Amino acid sequence: MLGPVILAASRSDRMRRLISAAPVTKQVVDRFIPGEDVDDIVPVVRDLTDQGLELTMDVVGEDITNPAQAAAARDAYLELVDRLKPLELGTRAEMSVKLSMFGQALEDGHELALKNVRPVVEAAAEIGTTVTLDAEDHTTLDSMFAIHEELRKDFPQTGCVIQAYLFRTEADARRLAANGSRVRLVKGAYKEPASVAYQDKHEIDRAYVRILRTLMEGEGYPMIGSHDPRLIAIGQELAHRAGRKLDEYEFQMLYGIRTEEHLRLAAEGHRMRVYTAYGTDWYGYFMRRLAEKPANLRFFARSMITKG
């Protein structure tokens, strides 16, 4: 299995050095991570929104080892909000955050992460947009959901992510769907043990469909995070059966993957949001995208040839 090997490489300093130094790496990374700072990303935001697409932006970097780094991550997002303000895009440009960047794994990390993420959520609300809390490995989720619930008391539009491969997610989806949350459903990109997660691709796909049906039939706003053509078609059918209008759910895909499909869905009137990561600490994000499923390796390899 390639996935576990790639995930192991994502945690290896030696592999980080080797891959970062490879001449071909920058060409591939530039294709899928369109910049290292906010000055790089603003033109990308303008370009994508001009094409009828929406964005969720992620400042990459998760290896936080002290509170000062967590505060710096907070400040990077506040800078992003400041640069988005004059564009007046509202929810067409939102943000995704990983609580690990805000100090979740440090001592008293739950309180620290909440303290750091709250000003970002507040600032986003002031310019008419919102924040989605990304899901990380299963040991962090109780904290993430608790922070999500706390933030929603003042900012009910705050979203969260759930992962289809975890056994717990069907129950989480039922709770969140009844709650009226904004929920992004993904398959999952972390290496999880068989005690907590499905290991077989077909089991994960079946779980994804069950969970998506729950979200579509609920009172929340489903966000379908997938590049899988079959799951996209199933999502459209489930939305139709649930009587949802085109603006009552959305699709989300990664920047640089299936770009023609982004435009096709938008042209059909769907809300199509592009998950757009930027920053200097791209390695962990990049490797997880490769590990997420073998097809991503083909996407990356094909992009090197086709450029489209």
Automatic annotation (TrEMBL):
Keywords (alphabetical) are: FAD, Flavoprotein, Nucleotide-binding, Oxidoreductase, Proline metabolism
Pathway listed for it is: Amino-acid degradation; L-proline degradation into L-glutamate; L-glutamate from L-proline: step 1/2
Q: Which cofactor does it need?
A: FAD
- What does the record give as the reaction this protein catalyses? L-proline + a quinone = (S)-1-pyrroline-5-carboxylate + a quinol + H(+)
**E.C. numbers:** 1.5.5.2
InterPro entries in the cross-refs? FAD-linked_oxidoreductase-like (IPR029041), PRODH_bac_arc (IPR008219), Proline_DH_dom (IPR002872), Proline_oxidase (IPR015659)
Gene3D superfamilies named among the record's database cross-references: 3.20.20.220
Pfam family example for this protein?
Pro_dh
Identify the residues that the record assigns to the Proline dehydrogenase domain, covering every copy. Answer: 45-301
Source superkingdom: Bacteria
Concerning PANTHER family, the annotation shows: PROLINE DEHYDROGENASE 1, MITOCHONDRIAL, PROLINE OXIDASE
Name of the protein this chain belongs to: proline dehydrogenase
Q: Which organism is it from?
A: Streptomyces lomondensis
